[in-house]
Design a protein that fits this description.
The protein is built from 5 helices and 5 strands; from the N terminus they run αβαβαβαββα. A 5-stranded mixed beta sheet has the order 3-2-1-4-5, sandwiched between helices. The protein folds into 2 domains: 2-25 and 240-279; 32-233, 3-Layer(aba) Sandwich (Pyruvate Kinase, Chain: A, domain 1). The chain has helices at residues 2-59, 93-100, 112-117, 137-154, 201-279, and strands at residues 72-78, 105-110, 124-128, 160-168, 173-180.
């Protein structure tokens, strides 16, 4: 009886864990559907700004910052805020190490789980709490901008080459992407006449750059969250299958123990009946 109760308690625990994992899987699936709409809209916005920037720089190349060799690299590494997403954060470490070998690089790690992996890394300039769901992206960006502002104050006059290392959902792996400075157009301009500006070219480029960085970071965060939730779905599927195998094995064990108890009960009844028969 004692062994069967232990198995029964274990089965109850596995059923409870299985229910929790199924709920987490459903939440991750729901989040991917919501993020798909966010990503599509944000990519259109980024593409539109990139087209405007290319048009502007084709006619006002002098407005762009010169001396690219003087730019310092600022690398944003976008990890996860939550766990149970497989090796999502671990796979960022190798490309991050490769990127920092290119020279003097300031590193900003986003996401508590990634931050925990890099906690002892003295090369990390700042840790930023990341978003857990799409609705938290705006707040995470506010925190990130605040950190970038602090780094800028520590290095007045410094011009950044900002890159983002994150999981790209389309390529199913880490992607290193340059955000700033804006890419200079290649080839002939798409239009025959320069755009009509209401601002000085340098002022226009400054405001366009701010808007582009804001839009591009939204896209990066949304795409990273999409990849994170898809990896979480895979992780949950694997865990649930493993649990189901354990549950099936425990049920067989439970049934076997129950059969043993029934046989023992039958034997006791038969022995009792024989004893009564002999006594009579």
């Amino acid at each position: 009886m004692g062994k069967r109760r232990e198995v029964q308690q274990r089965l109850a625990s596995l059923n409870e864990i299985d229910g929790i994992m199924v709920a987490m899987k459903n939440l991750a699936l729901l989040e991917t559907h919501r993020l798909a709409g966010f990503i599509d809209t944000q990519r259109r916005a980024v593409t539109s700004i990139e087209a405007a920037a290319a048009d502007f720089l084709a006619f006002y190349p002098q407005a762009a910052a010169s001396g690219d060799g003087m730019l310092q690299m600022l690398l944003l590494v976008i990890g996860s805020e939550r766990g149970l997403c497989g090796d999502f954060n671990e796979t960022l470490l190798e490309p991050m190490s490769a990127a920092r070998q290119q020279g003097d690089t300031l590193l900003v790690a986003v996401g508590r789980k990634l931050g925990a992996r890099l906690h002892d890394d003295a090369g990390i300039s700042a840790f930023v709490e990341g978003p857990s769901v799409g609705e938290e992206v705006e707040a995470a960006l506010v925190r990130l901008v605040r950190v970038l502002g602090d780094l800028q104050q520590q290095r007045p006059g410094q011009v950044w080459r900002i890159k983002a290392l994150y999981h790209d959902d389309e390529s199913a792996g880490p992607r290193l992407r340059q955000l700033l400075p804006l890419a200079k157009p290649i080839g002939t301009p798409a239009y025959s006449h320069a755009p009509l500006l209401n601002l000085e070219p340098a002022q226009f480029l400054s405001q366009l750059t701010d808007q582009y960085l804001y839009a591009a970071l939204h896209e990066v965060f949304y795409v990273s969250l999409m990849a994170e939730n898809r990896m979480r779905l895979e992780h949950m599927d694997s865990a649930i299958r493993h649990l189901e195998k354990d549950e099936a094995a425990l049920r067989l064990r439970y049934n076997a123990l129950r059969q043993e108890e029934i046989i023992e009960e039958i034997e006791i009844i038969m022995l009792s009946a024989e004893a009564l028969s002999d006594a009579g």
